[in-house]
Amino acid sequence: MMKVARVRGGKGIEAITVTQEAIPEAGAGEALVRLTAATLNFRDLIMAKGLIPGIWKEPELIPLSCSAGEVVAVSSGVTRVKPGDRVVPIFAQGWLSGTQSTPTMLGGSVDGVARQYASFEAESLALLPDELGDFDGATLSCAALTAWSALTQYRPIQPGEWVLAHGTGGVSIAALQLAKAMGAQVALTSSSDAKLHRARALGADVTINYRSRPDWAVALREALGSARIANVIDTVGEVQFDDNASLLLADGQISAIGMLGSGFSWTRQQPGVSLAPISVGNRDQHEAMTAFMVRHHIRPVVDVVYDLDRIQDAYRHLESGKFFGKVGISLI
Known about the structure:
Quinone Oxidoreductase, Chain A, domain 1; six-stranded parallel β-sheet; 2 domains; alpha/beta; 332 residues; 25% helix; Rossmann fold
């Protein structure tokens, strides 16, 4: 038997339950994985609280999309992985290469990873190098890969250029770490001086508290002098579009990712402003990112870890915003 968390989409954090269920078997073309670590994303709150109706599996869903674990069995004919391999299930199952995502997204349209065992298509598993721990791996498939895609997919960041990241959640901190390894300079905003201090320890070149400086764009412009932003990691949404656009290089990019403060900016159009909608990434991109992280000795930040039995508390901690990087779930 194994522990499994389930949530009824849109019913809220209080509707998340943890029960005992039978361990599944690997079907044709699949591998059975013993999951050991998971992390939460803001997307998980969207599913639980019903912020964007119609995008979750009905009537109930095993939540979470990001995890790592070890293969314990494979079906006949599977060659990509073998028992004993450490792996990360990719976010969009079946999206191996190219630009067209699949609708099979863990913890949304299909059951996710808040469980101790799960079977996955073997081709939708990425190997986890020994240099990265299980919780490192559990940050990769959504937050880190989104940051990687924002920095590499449409307008690859160049050494010496400026990246602006908003907040200190999983995507922004991954973007900070990746961009610094690419030779970029990074500006970062937050409402917490303590979080900004931690961001500077990770290499942030300019940090601005937008609570003490509501005119954060003016403050950033003063700090940059004649420089301009090449890429904005936009996790906040449309409410900051105009300020973000005012800071861009002529060929700069707003990477539209999140809706932490308003609706998505994905459909916002303005002459002369390049807006790139970022939708995580495929297996090839995941593997390229992982290899880059190993080469540059990047270790993701997991701020706090809860047991699966306390998954409601983990969600509440995520909702509070009182974390830096990622909130983890131990599945052992």
